[in-house]
Every structure is written in C-alpha cells, then in structure tokens.
Records
---
Amino acid sequence: MTTHSSCGSDPTKKRLCPICLHWDPRPEEMTGPGIGYCIERDIVTMIRCECEDFEEATKSKTAARNKRLYGEFEGDEEHEDER
C-alpha cells in the first residue's frame, strides 16, 4: 500500500485517511490502494499518518455530513430506528 511521506518507514504509525470523515477512496478512478481523494483539502493524496484536517468518521458525523451533502430523503425517519 502506498503511503504519504508523513508515515515514514514506521509500519506502526496509524494510517489516518481510511478512518477520516474527509476521505474518499475513489475506487472508480482506479488510483490503486492507498491513494484517494481528500474532500477537505480538495486533493488526490496518498494515505497520511499526520494531518491537521483529520476528523474521525463516526456514524453520527458521517450521517450529518451526508445529510448536508445530499439532503434528506423521504422515509429517512423510518430507517433511523433500524440503525
């Protein structure tokens, strides 16, 4: 897997991008493992181990972001109880 220089050669450093709210792996663009799009920075990048824009993607933060981006869909309330 390709990683950013912020990870150095230390395999124990935590890879932040895959668990970040702003990460989009973009598999449709065939960029390869470890490369994706950072929504916050508006760049295609390798997975980073240090980032001032990192925000952990919890279920509630992801739901709020999706609601902000895509709006509410009819019937969203019924599915809230199922989660």
---
Amino acid sequence: MNDINARNIVVIVAAVIIGLVVLGFIGMILSNIVPLAIVALIAFILGRTSHRVNYLQLGRNAVNRAREAAETSVEKAAARAETRKEAAGYGEAAQDANQRLAQEARTAAEAAAARAEQRAAEAPARLVESETPAEDLTAKPDFVVKTAEQIQAESRLIEEEAAKKAQAMDVQSALEERRRRLLGEKGDQE
C-alpha cells in the first residue's frame, strides 16, 4: 500500500511541476510575444494598404490647408470689423484715436531712448565709483604674526599652568566629589 501512495504522490507532484512550467511558458508568450505579433500584424496591414501614399506630401497638404483656413478666417474677421466700423460711423474717429495712440507710443519710445542714452553716459562714472574700494584692507591687519620662539614660549606657559593645576588637585577629594554628584544621597550612606 505504501508503494501505491508514494507513487501517487510523486505523480501528483510531477503533474503540478509540469503544469507550473506550462503556465510559465504560456504567461511568457502572452506577455511578450503576443503584443509584438499584434504590432507586426498591424504594421503589415498598414504597409500593404498604403504602399502608394506619400506621407510627407500628405502632411504638407494638411499644414497648408490649416494655414489657408486661418488666413481666410482672419481676413474675413477683419472685413467684418471694417464693415461694422463703417456702418456705425466710427471709421474716422477710430483712425484719429489710432493716430493719437501711435504718436504717444513714438514719444514714449523717444523718451525711453533718451533715458537709456543718459544712463549709458552715467554708467562709466558709476562703474569707476564702485570699482574703487573704500579703504585698503591689507594696510591694517587684524592679527599679529608670531615667531616660532613666541609660540613655543606661549605653549610652555600654558603647559606649566596645566601642570600646576594637576599638582594642586587632590585626587581623593575629586573622586569623593564625583561620587557625591553621581550617587546623590546614596553615596553618603556607604
């Protein structure tokens, strides 16, 4: 009986493994090969149906048509506006207003040009003023350059002071003070 059960278990495990391998292969085909095949089929069909079509010329024609449509619509809108102005009697008044605006724009442009020329004339003077420093910073240094002997003498003094402090300090009293600080009242009980 054990042989039959063991053989059945091995057959079931083998079938599951084979099924997983087959599913993996099918998944690979569906995820990689099928989309490429669909694209190839569409490209083949489009290529066969459009073998006598010049796509560059087709694009140029579309752009030209759009440009012509835009130009004609602008021309039509201008003609409509002109007829409205004439019908309303605003033609001469509008021309006078346009001439006044053009004159004001010219005078504003002339004034701006005059201001620009004046600034250009003043610019070298401003540049000269900004290029000269207020004072020479290297004339008065804020530090003193020490010689090697002065540095050694200073370090000897500092070392002597540190040695005096170390000699004056009582090691036992320092340990007791530290113990009191760290332990608080518990240090006094010992």
---
Amino acid sequence: MEPTKVITIRIDEKLNEHLDNMKERMGISKTNLIKNYLEFSKYLIKHKTALSSLNDRDLVVIKKSFLRNLIEQLEEKEQLNYGDKLARFVNDIARIYGKQEDLRYKIDFCDNLGFFNSFFDDNNYLLTTKKFGPKKFVEAFLWRLFKQKELNSNYIEEEMKGNKSLRQKYKSEIKKLEISSSHYSYEFAQIPKKQ
C-alpha cells in the first residue's frame, strides 16, 4: 500500500452543500467523492474558468454521444484522421510523463477521461465499446495508441472496393477478433502479460 497524506482545505458552505448532494446522488462517501475529483487532476488541469490537458491544450466537455454522432457523419478517411489525432493526444501526454511505452497507463488515461472503459478479455485483448465511435475511427485510434504510427489511410471501403490485395493487406494487419458483439477487438490491441 502506498503511503498516504492528509490534506485540509477550507471551502465555503455552498460548495460543502453541493458535495453533500453529490455524494447522496452517487451513493458514495464524501471522502470518496473528493478523492475522485482529486484523482482527476492526474488527467487534466482545472483553471478557475477553463480546462486544459496535461500538455496545456484547451479542453471542453461535451456529451460523448454528440461527439460520436459528429464523427459518424464524417467520411471514412476523416474518421481515420480524427482517430489518429485523438490517439496522438494521448500518446503526447504519456510521453510527457515518461510513459510512452506504458500501454496500461494510456488505457487508464482513456478510461479516466471517459473515452471507453479499461476492459480486457482473459488473453489481455482490449475490448473497446462500439459506443466509442465508428469502426474506422476506433481502428485508427487504437493503431496509433498501440503501434505509435499512423494506420494506412487507404484502409477505407472506397479504396479497398475491388482491390483484393489491399483488402487482404488490411485484414492481415488489422486482424479483427470476434470476442464480443458490442465491442471492437483486434489482435494488435493486446497488452503483454508482463505489463
């Protein structure tokens, strides 16, 4: 068990009442509620009137379903592009903290920012909920996260249609697994047992 510290802070009565209401709503202790908020500081920075990432990028909070719907409206090539960009953001944060090779850290980061739950099968394959986004977006995101390189931008239906060799290359590289009907899973998205 890691050593712990006690901290004492003074808050106004309105904030105290709000915390009491939130603990009741969530069904947890006030201590656990406050710890959850403090833990969040490992993933983002809360300024007085703004949010920013650990690498000092401006952030905004939006509904997950709204973001997913926006991404689903994009053409597959753009979905690949946005998946890659979002994973580069996660990789950049990991690099800042010397954890670029630490897949567990990066998956935990995604889990704590609400991208998707940290969920693995018995063989340590990551199962990514389909609610995270459309298939091409998720493939590009996970490829960049695990392989730290860009997924081939020709791996879209428009390019692979009628191109048997490209489709075969795609299938042999991506190696989609059928572990769960409500999750994406790929052979490349596996955490080694030792991590």
